[in-house]
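Open question from group meeting: does this chain pack into something compact, or does most of it stay loose? Before anyone orders reagents, we agreed to write out a predicted structure and look at it together. Recording both the input and the output here so the notebook holds the full record.
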Amino acid sequence: MELAYVFGTKETSASILGFRGEEDSIFPWLKDNGYTAIEPFVRNPNLFNQVEFEKKVEKSGLKIAAIGTGPMVSDDKLTFTDKDPAVRKEAVKRVNEIIDFASIFQVPVNIGKVRGDIHEELFIQSWHWMSGALNEVCEHADTVGVDIILEPQNKHNINNLNTTYETMNLIKELKLPNLQMMIDVFHLAFEDYSIEKSLSLVKDQLLHVHLADSNRFAPGMGDFDFTYTIQLLEDINYQGYLSLEVAAEKNRFKEAKDAAEFLYSIIHG
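Structure tokens returned:
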């Protein structure tokens, strides 16, 4: 297992739980301080120079772990279940454009809050909108060899697919070959009864993992048991990235460096 860190691309504007700024300085710093990849959080890939971005990643020696879609929601309020059909259509179009960007690196695209909330007064219709959109983006992703990964998030973030169990049930129901699973240990610890049972449940579909401590800061700054969790990931033979999606308390650079040292002491210990 190797470490990645979330990075907001230039066109994003709302706050993210990761680095943002000049790629020419941040990418080499991450490489020099224990990270082998970044996880770009993208709002709209048509609003930055994709070729230039790819060259900067390659020059730094970093890889791309996955592509996040969160800024679509935080910046542009695009979701699959918006009551406005034009917004829903634009959400699918935008995700498909992000899928095309991800295909450059052949990495998965994360569907988190962009799936949208379920409206109580339009309960069945909301699920229909979400399922239809997932079918559309998975169909497009399949044409370019990209996987879509669904992320369970806690009920303070979104009102559906809060647990690993619920998310896996939807994946099984939709039967889309390139719809897979990711977890964020912060959300998992918040919603799931047993981390061990959850990881066992998803072991065959798990493509990506987000890390954050119990307080949403970098690993090692709270009381989450990373030694136990990393051992469980090793037990299910997880080979993907551990990607930090964390808030910064004071100094993101120092906290990122300390987190890498802390996590590698467990991984290599």
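Observations to bring back to the group:
The mean pLDDT is 97.
The CA atoms of residues 73 and 157 lie 12 Å apart.
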